[in-house]
Write a sequence for this structure.
């Protein structure tokens, strides 16, 4: 049986699953829900992450030209940053079991994040891009990678270093978002194959809030609540556009929506745990909605993988 070619975008599935598992960990402390559910989801995320890494490394060896072409692609070129993001999220999953393993995964994630984001940003600064290539995958190296770096370092007790990475992510996010909004407003709408990338557009504020809460546990400062509110507005905008967004046939690209959803759920539950009244009011619907969306997506993806394996 021929092994499938794995694009870096497939690592988006790890983001949604691991984020949902982290949400269940918080829900255990907030509502007393069974801890084994969250650990089970994180175990599935770890298996998916490991399989994807093995397949991607194989592709790097036998299809090096294809990997290099993906890195240089004007739209897909941001997606290899997901290797770092997913690894850093696995560090958070591993931390309660082995601090050593969490540090190893964090070191790998930080190394790839810094090297790839510097290389990718250097490519962008040399110019030559077309306006239609300005899509939210550009967030992944400098925004998503640095927010998750901050989260991992905060969880490991090194908030001083984590704030540095959060700063890189915040100012990168603020410099990029106007480009995307201008593109959405002033050019023809995204074609259906690119619309799932809007799932990445919905994520930065909520991922930033989640990372902040790992750097400063129990925080409830106004700036944090403002981030959380803006992120929830972005998710509500996704609901308003669901018919337009759904014109793209189902594919693995739909996992792009789950990073913001899962990060927003973790942030909402942590804020509710800290006594924020608005978060306590929204915690249940946000948690239920995240489980329904990510659970449905996981079942559909699992069914597609099963059909592919049987047909091989």
């Amino acid at each position: 049986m021929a092994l499938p070619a794995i694009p870096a975008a497939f690592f988006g599935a790890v983001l949604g699953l691991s984020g949902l598992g982290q949400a269940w960990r918080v829900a255990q402390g907030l509502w007393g829900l069974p801890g084994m559910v969250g650990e089970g989801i994180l175990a599935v995320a770890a298996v998916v992450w490991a399989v994807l890494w093995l397949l991607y490394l194989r592709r790097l060896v036998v299809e090096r030209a294809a990997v290099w072409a993906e890195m240089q692609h004007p739209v897909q070129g941001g997606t290899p940053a997901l290797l770092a993001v997913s690894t850093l999220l696995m560090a958070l999953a591993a931390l309660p079991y082995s601090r050593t393993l969490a540090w190893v995964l964090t070191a790998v994630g930080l190394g790839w994040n810094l090297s790839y984001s510097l290389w990718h940003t250097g490519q962008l600064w040399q110019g030559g891009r077309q306006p239609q290539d300005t899509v939210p995958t550009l967030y992944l190296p400098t925004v998503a990678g640095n927010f998750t770096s901050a989260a991992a370092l905060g969880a490991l007790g090194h908030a001083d270093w984590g704030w540095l990475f959060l700063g890189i992510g915040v100012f990168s996010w603020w410099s990029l978002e106007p480009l995307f909004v201008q593109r959405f407003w002033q050019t023809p709408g995204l074609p259906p194959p690119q619309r799932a990338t809007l799932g990445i557009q919905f994520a930065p504020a909520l991922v930033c809030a989640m990372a902040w809460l790992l750097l400063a546990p129990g925080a409830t400062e106004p700036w944090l609540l403002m981030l959380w509110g803006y992120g929830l507005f972005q998710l509500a905008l996704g609901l308003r556009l669901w018919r337009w967004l759904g014109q793209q046939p189902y594919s693995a690209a739909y996992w792009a929506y789950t990073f913001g959803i899962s990060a927003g759920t973790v942030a909402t539950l942590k804020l509710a745990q800290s006594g924020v009244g608005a978060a306590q009011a929204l915690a249940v619907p946000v948690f239920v909605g995240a489980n329904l969306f990510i659970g449905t997506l996981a079942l559909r993806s699992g069914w597609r993988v099963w059909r592919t394996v049987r047909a091989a």
User: Anything to note?
Assistant: The mean pLDDT is 93. The chain is about 75% helix and 0% strand. Residues 277-311 form the longest helix (35 residues). The CA atoms of residues 85 and 148 lie 6 Å apart.
